[in-house]
């Protein structure tokens, strides 16, 4: 369900992504903007304020893990649902993460990408990236249906 142009846009945006740095940015933004999302991460230690969140090495590592999974999707655009089948099951049945939070993570990721790309993040690029993220969120939410 992708046009060649959409695939090219996703690939060219995604190759600019630094999984560790941008994953960290996105996860920090999630925790700071939507503080209740921190509740799933009690094992991460001190996330009591912005400085603690940004300096927390577990937050940093987990940001890379999450973007690493999205990286797999970016390289398997025609197979995103299958790519996320196990992860969806883990989030639904083991971690019990409210899938609303996947959408919120998608929103902060769009902001991280927009900040990174600046003027190159045109409305049409945004449209394609929003579609990509929506497909990722949908695939991750699959085990909840
Ligand atoms: Zn998640 C985990 C992905 C979102 C919560 N995750 C995880 C992992 C991965 C992911 C890959 C690992 C797994 C294993 O180990 O096996 N995520 C992901 C993605 C996304 C996400 C791709 C997008 C959207 N998550 C999310 C959110 C939340 C979460 C939003 C909430 C808020 N996760 C989680 C948790 C975990 C995970 C809690 C576990 C962690 C630890 O380490 O413990």
From TrEMBL:
Keyword Manganese: no
Short name of any one Pfam family annotated for the protein: Globin
Gene Ontology BP terms: hydrogen peroxide catabolic process
Residues annotated as domain Globin: 1-145
GO CC, one annotated term: hemoglobin complex
Keywords, sorted A to Z: Heme, Iron, Metal-binding, Oxygen transport, Transport
Lineage: superkingdom: Eukaryota
GO MF assignments: haptoglobin binding; heme binding; metal ion binding; organic acid binding; oxygen binding; oxygen carrier activity; peroxidase activity
Keyword Transport assigned: yes
Family per record: Belongs to the globin family.
Stated name of the protein: Globin domain-containing protein
Organism: Leptobrachium leishanense (Leishan spiny toad)
